[in-house]
């Protein structure tokens, strides 16, 4: 399971809050419980930006300052119940790159996401988190392009929706290129039967 960027700055009240982004957290927690009970690895990514980055408006980017390393905004949302041993992934650390995809992230020892997946023999990712039309989308596209399978937990993702249908169009596009959409009941049937 991969939980994408469920951080304070991406939830309501944060610097780049996704409207109702916190509403998916109880569902994500249910998925975490299922994956933990099945002894399946759980990855959690987070934006981990330096104070100065071309990603931010004041340095030439398009986004307001958000998820700066070691700030409250970069912390995981307090209601997110990560297991004791999640594999934490950090992205957006390069001041010259946007890094929307978790495939541009690395763990604390600087090992990249692809290598972490290969080391564990993982060929399929179940993805949840924020935001459907940005980091979830780019991560899902990279998953497919790099030869992995992707299952999008559609009841545990939420989008920015700069245009009203952005998230729906993103999910439609991803299913056309090979992603599979699932909800909690289907995952329970798949993993708990």
Keywords:
6 strands; 6-stranded parallel beta sheet; 17% strand; globular; 193 residues; 5 helices; Rossmann fold; alpha/beta
Structural account:
This protein has one domain (2-192): Rossmann fold (3-Layer(aba) Sandwich). It is built from 5 helices and 6 strands; from the N terminus they run E-H-E-E-H-E-H-E-H-E-H. It has helices at residues 25-37, 113-119, 132-145, 166-176, 184-192; strands at 2-4, 43-47, 87-91, 124-130, 149-158, 180-182. Strands 3-2-1-4-5-6 form a 6-stranded parallel beta sheet. Helix 1 (25-37) packs parallel to helix 5 and helix 3 (132-145) runs parallel beside helix 4 (166-176). The longest helix has 14 residues, at 132-145. The chain is globular and about 50 Å long.
Quick take:
Helices cover 28% and strands 17% of the residues. It is built from five helices and six strands, in the order βαββαβαβαβα.
Total helices: the number is 5
Q: Please give the radius of gyration in angstroms.
A: 16 Å
- The outline comes out as globular
Q: What name goes with the CATH superfamily?
A: Isochorismatase-like
Q: How many beta-strand elements?
A: 6
Overall tally of domains: 1
- As a percent range, the share of strand residues is 15-25%
Low-confidence stretches: none
Largest sheet: 6 strands, parallel
CATH architecture: 3-Layer(aba) Sandwich
Q: Which sequence of strands runs across the widest sheet?
A: 3-2-1-4-5-6
Which helices and strands, and how do they pair?
Blueprint: E1 2-4, H1 25-37, E2 43-47, E3 87-91, H2 113-119, E4 124-130, H3 132-145, E5 149-158, H4 166-176, E6 180-182, H5 184-192
Parallel strand pairs: 1-2, 1-4, 2-3, 4-5, 5-6
Helix pairs in contact: 1-5, 3-4
């Amino acid at each position: 399971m991969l939980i994408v960027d469920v951080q304070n700055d991406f939830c309501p009240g944060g610097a780049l809050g996704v409207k109702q982004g916190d509403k998916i957290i109880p569902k994500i927690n249910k998925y975490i419980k299922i994956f933990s009970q099945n002894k399946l690895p759980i990855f959690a990514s987070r934006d981990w930006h330096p104070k100065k980055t071309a990603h931010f408006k004041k340095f030439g980017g398009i986004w307001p300052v958000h998820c700066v390393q070691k700030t409250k905004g970069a912390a995981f949302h307090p209601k997110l119940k990560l297991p004791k041993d999640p594999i934490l992934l950090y992205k957006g650390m390069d001041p010259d790159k946007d890094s929307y995809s978790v495939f541009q992230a690395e763990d604390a020892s600087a090992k990249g996401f692809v290598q972490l997946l290969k080391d564990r023999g993982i060929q399929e990712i179940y993805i949840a988190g924020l935001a459907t039309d940005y980091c979830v989308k780019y991560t899902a596209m990279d998953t497919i392009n790099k030869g992995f399978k992707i299952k999008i937990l559609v009841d545990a993702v939420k989008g920015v929706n700069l245009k009203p249908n952005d998230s729906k169009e993103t999910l439609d596009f991803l299913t056309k290129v090979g992603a599979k959409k699932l909800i909690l009941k289907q995952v329970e049937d798949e993993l708990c039967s």
